[in-house]
Design a protein that fits this description.
- By secondary structure, the protein is of the alpha/beta class.
- It has a single domain (about 60-230), classed as 3-Layer(aba) Sandwich (Rossmann fold), CATH 3.40.50.150.
- Helix content is about 50%, strand content about 20%.
- It has helices spanning about 1-20, 25-35, 40-55, 60-75, 90-95, 110-125, 140, 145-150, 165-175, 190-195, 195-205; strands spanning about 80-85, 105-110, 130-135, 155-160, 180-185, 210-215, 225-230.
- A 7-stranded mixed beta sheet has the order 3-2-1-4-5-7-6, with helices on both faces.
- Helix 3 (about 40-55) crosses helix 6 (about 110-125).
- The N and C termini lie far apart (about 40 Å).
């Protein structure tokens, strides 16, 4: 798995970027604009999955783990959801398409290039009314959610950013009183590349009830899993 990722993420991607004078993320965007149906979120998701499984690997949640994400969002039926790590907007589109009328998703992305691409993909999918993209580091944005973005509490949080931020950001969400009894956290990539510190924290915390969903790394046969944690208050 590691060797395959090094090949896909570093060597092959750098060569392709140089030859095409475009980033992989720009290539994903172009593929969506050329092949997906505007205003159809499922078409956008299928097109990204097709590109990433057949052409270039990318760190979207992907189709297999996407079903776990879908199921969790449908169970929670959130009014206010938070995503940490937008990347190209794949999971934001995936979540937004399932939100009820009046519900919204706040999606946080640190990388300005990724945020610009995600914005176009979200708009192309037709879910821009349900998604607010917040650009900057999660540790700065989380404390602003109540006052600046008028969030009372979060019903659902999807963690899919830097793995070493999973634990401090979960602690920060609690310190800022953004979790209520029944709030659900779902964390991606807990086996590969792995988030051992987060698992140790969340599974040994009496304030959370945890469930593990075994799966595979997006677009690969490498073992991975997602961790669901329900806040007990």
């Amino acid at each position: 798995g590691t060797a395959a990722l090094i090949w896909n993420e570093i060597i092959r991607e750098k060569i392709t970027n140089f030859i095409m004078n475009k980033s992989k993320e720009q290539r994903i965007l172009n593929f969506v604009l050329q092949n997906a149906v505007r205003g159809d979120p499922c078409s956008v998701l299928d097109t990204i999955d097709k590109y990433c499984s057949q052409k270039e690997w990318a760190m979207n949640v992907g189709d297999e783990k996407g079903l776990i994400l879908d199921k969790t969002v449908e169970e929670v039926n959130p009014s206010v959801a938070l995503e940490l790590g937008t990347y190209c907007g794949y999971s934001a589109v995936r979540i937004a398409r399932l939100l009820k009328a009046g519900a919204h998703l706040l999606s946080v992305e640190f990388n300005p290039e990724f945020a610009a691409i995600a914005k176009q993909i979200i708009e192309f999918a037709g879910v821009q009314d349900k998604v607010k993209l917040l650009e900057g580091p999660s540790e700065e944005i989380i404390p602003q959610l109540k006052k600046k973005y008028e969030v009372d509490t979060l019903d659902f949080v999807f963690l899919d950013h830097w793995k070493d931020r999973y634990t401090p950001d979960t602690i920060l969400l609690q310190e800022c009183n953004l979790l209520r009894k029944g709030s659900v956290l779902l964390a991606d990539n807990i086996i590969f590349p792995g988030a051992p510190e987060f698992l140790n924290y969340i599974r040994n915390n009496p304030r959370f009830q945890c469930t593990t969903y075994p799966s595979h790394l997006e677009y690969m046969k490498v073992e991975d899993a997602m961790e669901k944690a329900v806040f007990l208050g």
